[in-house]
């Protein structure tokens, strides 16, 4: 695609050898390391499930698919509100930025709450991290992902407070873009985890 | 800033696609397709959704090529990691 036309809303946005602002590059380098982190988890899951003769229950007989599908949808919605916040920030639309950021925080917090509720329900049913390989893998993978969402929500609260203080006025959208990348990445990882851990 | 505005993708359309693909995924699980076909289609749909998020929400489609190389660098490494561990892990 014609990358340069879209990538340069301001002169500062095309600094450096890669051609993007340094915050964005830094976040991408971090996300690249996160790809390896989640590959280790997902790879272990694949090997444990299909490379061994271990007893493995059908996930749908243990986990509640409809509620988690709804939760997946909530996380996707919060990704959309995040990208809307970014679009508002690039247009210096402060009211829109604050509104979309609040919605994003709400979406992320809802996701974590539903996950906590799910854990509580599963533990009551007797499905524990010690319940075989599937239990261990399930809580490790969804737990690390939930930790990422929690960190995202806390950072997003901080960004929202900054937005209300006017820190992103005058087209200073780099911070919004950077946290947005993290937010979408966590959404992307969940899309993969939901398929591998819940559906297959 | 005009350039960014003209190029801004239709986020609501992407959102709609992601929602529809999620519904299709759940439907596939409950329709009880043959196992192999089910896994194949679920993986395909998940990768499709992940690609939509990366290209449009993370703006990879609109970034300079050099950033794309940075982003794609770990993918071969990820494949190598899984293959190597798989070979090191043999059940008796």
Average pLDDT of chain A, to the nearest integer? 90
Number of domains of chain A: 1
* Proportion of beta-strand residues of chain A: under 5%
Unreliable runs of chain A, pLDDT <50, ≥5 residues?
1-12
**Class from secondary-structure proportions of chain A:** mainly alpha
Distance between the termini of chain A: 35 Å
What is the molecular shape of chain A? elongated
Report the oligomer: heterodimer
What is the helix tally of chain B? 5
Class from secondary-structure proportions of chain B: mainly alpha
Low-confidence stretches of chain B at least 5 residues in length (pLDDT < 50)?
A: 1-6
Characterization of this structure:
The complex is a heterodimer of chains A (200) and B (92). Chain A is mostly helical. Chain A has one domain (3-199): Four Helix Bundle (Hemerythrin (Met), subunit A) (Up-down Bundle), CATH 1.20.120. Chain A has 7 helices and no strands. Chain A has helices at 3-7, 22-50, 59-62, 65-90, 94-125, 132-164, 174-199. The longest helix of chain A is centred in the C-terminal third of the chain and has 33 residues, at 132-164. In chain A, 37% of the residues are buried. Chain B is mostly helical. Chain B has a domain at 2-63. Chain B is 79% helix and 0% strand. Chain B has helices spanning 2-7, 11-31, 35-57, 65-72, 74-88. In chain B, α2 runs antiparallel to α3 (35-57). The longest helix of chain B is centred in the middle third of the chain and has 23 residues, at 35-57. Chains A and B meet through α1, α2, α4 and α7 of A and α1, α2, α3, α4 and α5 of B.
């Amino acid at each position: 695609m014609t990358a340069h036309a879209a990538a340069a809303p301001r002169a500062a946005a095309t600094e450096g050898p890669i051609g993007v602002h340094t915050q964005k590059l830094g976040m991408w380098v971090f996300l690249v390391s996160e790809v390896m982190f989640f590959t280790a988890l997902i790879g272990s899951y694949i090997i444990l499930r299909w490379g061994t003769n271990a007893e493995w229950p059908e996930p749908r007989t243990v986990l509640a698919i409809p509620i988690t599908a709804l939760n997946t949808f909530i996380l996707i919605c919060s990704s959309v509100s995040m990208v809307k916040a970014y679009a508002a920030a690039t247009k210096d639309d402060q009211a829109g930025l604050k509104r979309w950021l609040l919605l994003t925080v709400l979406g992320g917090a809802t996701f974590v709450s539903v996950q906590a509720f799910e854990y509580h329900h599963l533990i009551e049913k007797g499905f524990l991290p010690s319940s075989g390989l599937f239990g261990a893998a399930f809580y490790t993978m969804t737990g690390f992902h939930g930790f990422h969402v929690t960190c995202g929500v806390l950072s997003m609260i901080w960004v929202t407070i900054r937005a209300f203080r006017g820190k992103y006025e005058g087209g200073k959208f780099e911070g919004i873009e950077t946290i947005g990348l993290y937010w979408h990445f966590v959404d992307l990882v969940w899309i993969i985890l939901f398929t591998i851990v819940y559906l297959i | 800033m005009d350039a960014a505005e003209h190029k801004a993708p239709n986020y609501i359309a992407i959102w709609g696609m992601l929602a529809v693909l999620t519904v299709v995924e759940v439907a596939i699980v409950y329709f009880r397709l043959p196992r192999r076909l089910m896994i194949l289609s679920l993986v395909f749909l998940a990768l499709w959704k992940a690609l939509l998020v990366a290209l449009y929400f993370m703006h990879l489609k609109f970034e300079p090529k050099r950033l794309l190389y940075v982003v794609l660098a770990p993918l071969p490494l990820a494949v190598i990691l899984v293959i190597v561990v798989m070979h090191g892990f043999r059940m008796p």
